[in-house]
Amino acid sequence: MQNVELVPLLEICEPALSLEAQWWSLEGTTQADKDKVEKIIHAFEGCPTPHAPPNFMIPETFSNLQWEAIISNHIDNMKPDESCALWGGYGLKVSGDWSLLPQCCGTLSDLKGWITLKDFAQSFPLTGIKTTDDFVMEGHPCPDVYCEGEDVYFKCDDDFESFVPPHKKLFSVNAFELVNAIQKTEERVRLLHLRINQLVGSFGVETLSHLLQE
Predict the structure, then answer these.
(1) Domain locations in the chain as residue ranges
(2) Which is nearest to 97 in space by CA: 23, 11, 202, 167?
(3) Residues near 46 by Cβ (< 8 Å), separated by ≥ 6?
């Protein structure tokens, strides 16, 4: 039996992971940019260590100070209720290894795509192959998905973009295990909503839930 996990992952701005001198001297880098990065580094008491490559962290581990630094960096000069969901998404971990990671432009609102996939996967067991075009992510590229028997297959092969980091071009997970993993993640995200909404006073808004699910 596979051990399948769907893990919420939040993207950390790369300059906060390694204080490379060239970034600080880049043309167009303002003092405000540097201050936001330094706020993250201060909150994490040093450069954060990613939980998943290349620069993803599990948000449930964050303190209030770390959440405030991440949210401040994300919303930049916008009003908190005008920003998109936090950058990142959901990593699929199979038997302890990352099989699928969030891609470019992915956000934590990508949970809705996984919920759609959960509903699709519950149509097992199947005879023949069943495909879906409804597994859609904010991030790109996005794998093609199909079911066969009691397995869900992910095809990470795109004609125009490469998956980063490189992914196995085709892998499968047991549909029962995947559905269970997605259900557990829905509860994890519900608790994250409660967690970040404890910080509304710091940002002068009534809710920050849109940062997790637009």
Answers:
(1) 4-211
(2) 167
(3) none
